[in-house]
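Researcher: For the record, we're logging two predictions in this thread. I'll number them. Prediction 1 follows.
Model: Prediction 1, sequence and structure:
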Amino acid sequence: MKSNLLSRRDLEFLLFEWLRVDELIKHERFTEHSREGFAALLDLCEQLATGYFAPHNKKGDVEEPTFDGHVVTTVPEVKEAWDAFASADLIGMSMDQALGGSQLPRTMSIAALAWFCAANISTTGYLILTMANANLVAKHGSSDQIQTFVTPMISGRFSGTMALSETQAGSSLADIATRAEPQGDGTYRLFGSKMWISGAEHELTENIVHLVLARIPGGPPGTKGISLFIVPKYLVGVDGSVGERNDVSLAGLNHKMGQRGITNTVLNFGEGRYLPSDKPGAIGYLVGKRHDGITYMFDMMNEARLAVGMGAVALGYTGYLKSLEYARGRPQGRHMTVKDATTPQIAIIEHTDVKRMLLAQKAYVEGGMALALYCARLVDIQLGAESNDERDAARLLLDILTPIAKSWPSRWCLEANDLAIQVHGGYGYTKEYDVEQHYRDNRLNAIHEGTDGIQSLDLLGRKVVQRDGANLEALTRTISQSVTQAQAAGGELAVLASQLDSSWQRLVTVTAALFASGDIDVALANSVIYLEAFGHVVIAWMWLEQFLISEKATGEFYEGKRQAARYFFAYELPKTSPQLDLLENLDRTTLDMRTGWF
């Protein structure tokens, strides 16, 4: 029986036929792995996701975590799922073997995580945060910090979080106020409050490792004065034993429209609830150098952005598969030309508009999955590169694609969830079917790790222009290679390639025009429109790549690939034309709007 979480066949196509991830084993970093091992990993993750994560997805949504003033309680199945994942040694699956990890390619680990995101994104959130936390400390922490905190996270004894936002600052990290006062013993005492911190209080693990952004008094203003600290829920002894409670307290739980199974918290640091009152403050340990916290945290944020994008893809994907299954089995109505009411009803999948909705979902989720895995492949190239040129080329591409990999699935795989509800008809709007929860869960991804506005400013205001445009030039070269290959194939592929090339060259021209205006406010006024157009052209490129691999193959799977590509080029890519018109005209409508006119 086929899974309705993800398509194993599609994953195999993307991983092995397109990205040829098995070729990574030629790199020294990945030599101990094999294609058979990669397949076994997918088997294992599908089984664990189906057996331990999916069954309590609805239960965790209905029975949200509760806080009695002392202890947070989650449904017991969350702990069982955590333990199953940890027992399979999956927390450190892409981390260095020297740290106790399996050193798997990141492409495989993110494909593996997709199963869990599709099954239960709330429970998976605890794991994703822990893995990203461990990666950051492993890269920037001291050897003692790695031994004390990373090793227990990899084994599943400890979990991890990221504590950035504050009530008065929101996404504007330059305005955070949490302070860290240095002590004579090399530690710091933290005072302040953090908001919207996922996974920051529970009883799933022995300890919770918070990565906290804070200011050391006397440091420079803005982001240049922010440092990063490890602040554990419980202090850890030199022998690795968990000791007394640190002065980190839970002020309350936030209750969201989706992803309700993972705790979302308000944390207070140094309010004197724990530890002796004669020496207040939550004990923290500086990571790396003073005032370099934002630089370090961006490693975790960028990893989380790729994970959020994959989470959005996975939720869109499982909604698509469930609506497809429903459409195949739901009889209703007849073909438009059949007037005889005594003839049998047909399955709704036979209706053209239902086909349209299913085809749109397929184009969104399979295009999004391709982008997520492609970006993970770029991470692997950087990790396993045998030359600086190869590493730098991958870094240029990943830098410019990361805002797209986060934002595009958060917008368009959510649209897939919306269409999945509609395919279900009235049933789609009820809690008896999964698709309404998938929509609510996915809606949060538009704000996780930065809104579209933040991603668009990062793309247009930073990534496009930094290094004298080297990122954009690298992507232009890479897309041009695909276009050249497709044009050489001739026929339909050449037509699609020319369409993509025209759209991309127009985008590059418009990009230059935006900055040629000399008015940065005008250039950035419609950055979200730019982000949307950029994303759609990139996904068209993903579909051209898939068409190239599918061109001469036979069978329904490949026919479906080609048809989804045709759909995207016919229905979706043309949407960028009026967007580029608006950008090229340097439209000032939103910029010139005055607050009093609302």
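Researcher: Logged. Prediction 2.
Model: Prediction 2, sequence and structure:
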Amino acid sequence: MNKKTAVNALLIVLSLLLVGGMALQFLPGDGAQNIMNSIRGEKGTPAIRVNGKAITAEKLKSIEQNNPSPFKAQGGVLQDDFRTFLISQVIRQEVMTQAAGDINVTRQDVDAEVTKVREDNKLTDNAAWTDALQRVGLSDSEYRQQVKEGLALQRQTEEIEKSAPAPTEDEMKTYYDLNPTLFQTEQRIKGREIVLDDQAQAQKVLAQARGGADFAELARKNSKEENAASGGALGALGEKGALQPVETVVLPDEVAKAVQSLPSPGLTEVVASGGRFYIVKVEELLPPQTKPYEQVKADVKTALEKSKKAAAVEQFMDQQLAAAKIEVVDPAWKYEDPTVAEVNGKKIPYSEVVGRVLQNQQLMMMVQGMNGGQLGDMVNGMLKPSVVEQLIREYAAPTIVQQEGVKVVGTRQDLVSGLIAYGGRDVKVSDQELRKAYEEGKAQFQVPGSAAVSEATFPSREQALAFRQDWQGGDFTKAATKAGGIVSERGTIHPDSDTLDPSVLQAIFEGKLRAVGDTSLTDIVQAKDGWKVVSVADLQPGRVLPFDEVRNTLETSLFNEKQGTKGEEFLSGKVAAFKPVNHLKEVLDAQKARVAAEAPATASGAATSGAATSETTSGAAASEAATTPAENESASGAQAAPAEGSAAATGQ
């Protein structure tokens, strides 16, 4: 890594430290836990007070600059959404930082962490380190303070996680019973392989196999692998030399992928991997099966431990946010975070809806391709209503679990998933349903025809005709080349392949073929680039996979569909009993009117925000802008709730 790259890497780290909650929302999975985010009040102009401690306008401006809005070009309500989310996340982060204030972090701990960052980014030189810090507006002492707070948050999270109770046997068995697809075996096969060091030889052996030669005998004579003596058998042989099922993990990745792509038992192409060339013959494809409980019990326990730890952190955060007192003292940083829905006495803040919207990867990909009006209509008309309904279910889930006595555990999202599985736990799939689904969906079980093809192109019809009449077998490529043709190895092709002229495809799959040894020849075909004769091997006509061959796969798919449908109905009925109130329309109407009214002011400049706030905030204005928890719902925990990786939200 050169010096410029190293500095850039550090700046990214430092920017994330300044970002606060933003890093928590956008890092996928457990990646967020590797970032120590902490936002603290510093000397400057107080903008928002959290439990009496100030977050300054300067700090907020810095965070805003380090986190440019993806909706800046669109403006309007989407830009307002982003600002609401950003401020609510900073407040939330400050609440959690304060909660970790009693955690002991020594100077040695901080020194060790800073040293690691400097070494990892090749910034051990003091001048380079100072320069990198200055680029993001930090001094060494300020950075160390943020590291200290980040370590405190991390340790606090670890303490909360340790307090989570261990999974009980009932909880583990329930999790296993409700989630059978999580504990299935990989696809298994019964098959043989031939492994060679020469690609040309491998192609010849494959042609022989496609021509009907005994694969086991070909393996004994040609394969360079130790299992050649057993006819290339994958895995140990059973009684009387019977092939035993194995998982495709026994094969190199490239070869396993080729095997898994086979729609039915058969031969793979020659597959290169690690300098060797593989041919696999799959004699039987075995569907996945659910592993016995005792075999996966340890995995179940690990999954539930992680889920219960995340739930403990989520509950801790809820408590801290609900008790927090937030006061906006600088009008420039006033934000709107109304209640968007209510269920079972619980209020859902609008900022949480916005947070989920911003986590939608498809939306982020669409930002550049749509104007603000189109994108806003799509987000407000489709995405936000869906998110609100999901959040209503999540907030209702803990009570439903208690009412039903279901032994599902975890975060609110975990509970929703568990309740859906519970609601559909008794579904059955009848043979009649399977056969009906098979008849209605035959198109998805269609296996196209295929053939292994070598194409010889001649400049004249006479040359092509003479070659076709004279060739009696042997090396097609050498013979066609000697006769004046240009040979192209096309590999396995299908009737809809775009690598061959349509007239050639028609001759292969619909024309009359002349058998020559292990292969066949097409009639002469005129194409744009000459006259062609095609060698066809391993011709497989198109067919529909028989019912018995797809039964297991179809049964799993239909079961999951029925279970999901019934589970959704069960959960929807339970949630409806709480008579939830959805305020989304009123919230969006009010936001639209407010943003439209503020539009002229925003065009005149940002003099009312950021560093300029010190000139606009007088004591009277601060007093007038101050709010109480009752007046400002952001004070009652109205911040974005953590998703599955909620442990990260404490800065871990």
